[in-house]
Amino acid sequence: MGNSYNRQRILILITFLFIPLGLLGLFTYYPAVRLLYLSFTDWDGISKTVNFLGLDNYKEVFTNPDLFGVFIHQIPYVLGGVLQNIVAILFAVILNSRIKGRNLFRVLLFVPYIMNGVAVAFMFQYVFDTNNGSLNALLGMAGLSSLQHSWLGDTSLVNFSLASVSFWRYMGYTMIIYLGALQSIPGDMYEAATIDGANRFQSLWYLTLPSLTQVIQLNMFLTLSGALAVFDLPFVLTKGGPVGSSETFLLKTTETAFTFNNYGLASAMSIVLLILTVVILLVQNVALKRRGDA
Amino acid sequence: MITNRKIDPVQWLKYVLLGIASLIVLFPPYVVVLNAFKGPDESSSPFALPASFLNFENFRIVIDKADILQAFGNTFLVIAVSLVGNIVFGTMVSYALARIAFKGKGLILGLFLFASIIPTITTQVVIFSLIQSLGVFNTLFAPILLFVGADVLQITIYLQFIRNIPEELDESAMIDGASLFRIYRSIIFPLLSPATVTLVILKTINIYNELYIPFLYMPKQKLVMVSTSIMRFASNNQAQWSYICATILIIMVPTVLLYLFLQRYIFAGVTNGAVKG
């Protein structure tokens, strides 16, 4: 019997893993390796022949301010993301306390995450529209006409407007992750803290936040890597405009490939983005480990 | 604990904050709902109430002009086929990883994990020519091929579940002479159904909301999906806010309803995948 099961085990391993690993290889690792290869060439997407350029594409990425420089446009997303985590922890703590209607609020704050992203984008186009938009109308009604702006048309505002949409959409999601982590902190730890005379803020600061470290790390990774890879919102709402002020690195990458047929340069940009994502992950891990050892 | 009858300012502050957050969440959809029912002669002020909430004229026009029915049909088909394959592959990988000891298990998990941090849009630069050479460009198979593969979130959730299924079940089935495939199909797969339900819901929402893959691989008019339908329609109809609002509503309602009825599973999936993943 043992023998026949050993044969079966090998058979199952091969048959059960073959297609899923094949798909993973074909649509993730083959493209990643080919990106790396193409990043050293001048491939235009059609030609059978390619010229080897060495590191020229990478030089171009880092020295051309139109390429690497667009990361400046993504700073508002980073700031919005950090704020989003702070607000999400706040609401997770609130919803983890004894409060009426907590399920209603939980459901409501999470709902933006469920909505179709393109529909959300157009919904906010209506919010931000200069002439007919609801935000300017609201400001007008509140007697704050001086605050009315062309939210998506002003080069210094557009990225903050877009980042706020991202905040609106993902705050509830981040909150739910924190809430899940909070609920796994045993209640008797709080009782013990209360008996020892800790007030609410002391138990928040010394008990709740330290237990959240790992989840904060995960969420910050999601937030930062998300901010590096911003795409959908500017792609739908502004197409990178006005005058390129809401271009993001990923938007540039797809344009470089699909509009200007410079697949070599686009590949180098993709690799740079991938490396930056990995660097964030490593830095966070190292930072957390060091704190754990201390 | 001592019950306190006087009003607790912290408690009060909590409700104020929750109230403000709720208003911010509801403000954009509220304005969309108001304007989706407005006729062409009605006030263009975003806060003016429509003459009637039973005026479905905009919806009728939009369903026709934005190819909404076609979009829903294609989206449903892509979701159904992708998910059947995805669930079969995901459970198979997880079963093999959880129940069979072999070298390279950690490597396989690592490969799935690392794949999840590669920003998906970056690899499209290469996948685009791959999809073309496979001959599936401008067919529904393009998104299906890209959605059908197993992913790390799914494998993590399944692995947690399988580890909670006692191995004695497998062993007693072996004593009865059941094949490993039969154990997978008749014991493991059915016992994974709570996780499968959660994953089906989460993935349905993800595919429904996906924008770039249908945009890139299915430019053909007939292959419109939900996300691309509203994009095409809006770019052809600048400024017709009442139409765009109607389209937004039609597209948002299905996932929101799904969420309201099945929230338990969605929350379980989101927290499980994140906290233990």
TrEMBL record, chain A:
<feature type="domain" description="ABC transmembrane type-1">
    <location>
        <begin position="70"/>
        <end position="284"/>
    </location>
</feature>
<feature type="transmembrane region" description="Helical">
    <location>
        <begin position="167"/>
        <end position="185"/>
    </location>
</feature>
<keyword id="KW-0812">Transmembrane</keyword>
<feature type="transmembrane region" description="Helical">
    <location>
        <begin position="263"/>
        <end position="283"/>
    </location>
</feature>
<feature type="transmembrane region" description="Helical">
    <location>
        <begin position="107"/>
        <end position="128"/>
    </location>
</feature>
<dbReference type="InterPro" id="IPR035906">
    <property type="entry name" value="MetI-like_sf"/>
</dbReference>
<feature type="transmembrane region" description="Helical">
    <location>
        <begin position="206"/>
        <end position="231"/>
    </location>
</feature>
<feature type="transmembrane region" description="Helical">
    <location>
        <begin position="75"/>
        <end position="95"/>
    </location>
</feature>
<comment type="similarity">
    <text>Belongs to the binding-protein-dependent transport system permease family.</text>
</comment>
<keyword id="KW-0472">Membrane</keyword>
<dbReference type="InterPro" id="IPR051393">
    <property type="entry name" value="ABC_transporter_permease"/>
</dbReference>
<keyword id="KW-1003">Cell membrane</keyword>
<protein>
    <submittedName>
        <fullName>Melibiose/raffinose/stachyose import permease protein MelD</fullName>
    </submittedName>
</protein>
<dbReference type="InterPro" id="IPR000515">
    <property type="entry name" value="MetI-like"/>
</dbReference>
<keyword id="KW-1133">Transmembrane helix</keyword>
<dbReference type="Pfam" id="PF00528">
    <property type="entry name" value="BPD_transp_1"/>
</dbReference>
<keyword id="KW-0813">Transport</keyword>
<feature type="transmembrane region" description="Helical">
    <location>
        <begin position="12"/>
        <end position="32"/>
    </location>
</feature>
TrEMBL record, chain B:
<dbReference type="InterPro" id="IPR000515">
    <property type="entry name" value="MetI-like"/>
</dbReference>
<feature type="transmembrane region" description="Helical">
    <location>
        <begin position="241"/>
        <end position="262"/>
    </location>
</feature>
<comment type="similarity">
    <text>Belongs to the binding-protein-dependent transport system permease family.</text>
</comment>
<feature type="transmembrane region" description="Helical">
    <location>
        <begin position="76"/>
        <end position="97"/>
    </location>
</feature>
<feature type="transmembrane region" description="Helical">
    <location>
        <begin position="140"/>
        <end position="162"/>
    </location>
</feature>
<keyword id="KW-0472">Membrane</keyword>
<keyword id="KW-0813">Transport</keyword>
<keyword id="KW-0812">Transmembrane</keyword>
<keyword id="KW-1003">Cell membrane</keyword>
<dbReference type="Pfam" id="PF00528">
    <property type="entry name" value="BPD_transp_1"/>
</dbReference>
<dbReference type="InterPro" id="IPR035906">
    <property type="entry name" value="MetI-like_sf"/>
</dbReference>
<feature type="transmembrane region" description="Helical">
    <location>
        <begin position="109"/>
        <end position="134"/>
    </location>
</feature>
<feature type="transmembrane region" description="Helical">
    <location>
        <begin position="12"/>
        <end position="37"/>
    </location>
</feature>
<feature type="domain" description="ABC transmembrane type-1">
    <location>
        <begin position="72"/>
        <end position="262"/>
    </location>
</feature>
<keyword id="KW-1133">Transmembrane helix</keyword>
<feature type="transmembrane region" description="Helical">
    <location>
        <begin position="183"/>
        <end position="202"/>
    </location>
</feature>
<protein>
    <submittedName>
        <fullName>Melibiose/raffinose/stachyose import permease protein MelC</fullName>
    </submittedName>
</protein>
